[in-house]
Q: What sequence folds into this?
């Protein structure tokens, strides 16, 4: 008697590698039907001496592309991206806050970048990472460094706006994420423009830099909480 759990039952006429790719990268909503149709067409082309392999290559590429587009549009994709952002962004901002609060003698280049509000350039500079990790670092962080009233007010405005939006309307997960992205980027862009245009004195640059970094630092986790709570699928 044939064992219905035998691997023979799951073999297809398609090459093993093609089947493996299709079973993992195509749209799960119709994955089984797709593989079945492709197997039937592939077998027919082999039997009629048509160019089955080139056809399979083209169709597999199209099916995988369609599957990846569907995956990118899914809520789970955005949830995964948000977690990765938290892992990368939050420690980076915390380290920068520790360095900014404890720095003693930054290099002239880093100092000029600070006065220009170019935090993005600082984070790409090797000297910053050497000083931040070795001299300031995570060990020097204190809770008081993260108390910034404008940033707290900003994240409260985001939380209130997000709550009202989700209660009164039914935005898609992408629409909600686009609004959250605006709240994440605006503080940095605002601070950068203010520093570039008005060129404030050195002692006035620090509070602006704090808002530029801490407002996104507080906003990102709140966005993730709304994302996981309100968008289940």
A:
């Amino acid at each position: 008697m044939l064992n219905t759990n035998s691997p023979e039952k799951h073999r297809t006429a398609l090459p093993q590698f093609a089947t493996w790719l299709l079973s993992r990268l195509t749209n799960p909503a119709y994955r089984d039907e797709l593989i079945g149709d492709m197997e039937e067409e592939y077998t027919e082309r082999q039997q009629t001496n048509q160019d089955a392999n080139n056809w399979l290559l083209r169709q597999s590429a199209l099916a995988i592309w369609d599957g990846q587009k569907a995956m990118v549009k899914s809520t789970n994709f955005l949830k995964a991206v948000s977690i990765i952002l938290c892992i990368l962004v939050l420690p980076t901002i915390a380290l920068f806050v520790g360095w900014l609060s404890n720095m003693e003698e930054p290099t002239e280049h880093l100092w000029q970048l600070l006065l220009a509000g170019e935090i993005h350039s600082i984070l790409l500079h090797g000297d910053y990472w050497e000083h931040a990790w070795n001299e300031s670092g995570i060990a020097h962080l204190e809770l008081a460094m993260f108390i910034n009233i404008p940033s707290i007010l900003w994240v409260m405005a985001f939380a209130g706006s997000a709550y009202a939006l989700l209660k009164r309307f039914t935005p898609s997960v992408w629409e909600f994420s686009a609004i959250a992205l605006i709240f994440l980027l605006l503080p940095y862009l605002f601070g950068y423009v203010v520093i570039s245009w008005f060129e404030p004195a050195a002692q006035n640059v620090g509070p602006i830099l704090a808002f530029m970094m801490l407002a996104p630092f507080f906003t990102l986790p709140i966005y993730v909480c709304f994302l996981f709570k309100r968008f289940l699928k």
Q: What stands out?
A: Confidence is low (pLDDT under 50) at residues 1-11. Residues 202-230 form the longest helix (29 residues). The chain is about 75% helix and 0% strand. The CA atoms of residues 108 and 114 lie 10 Å apart.
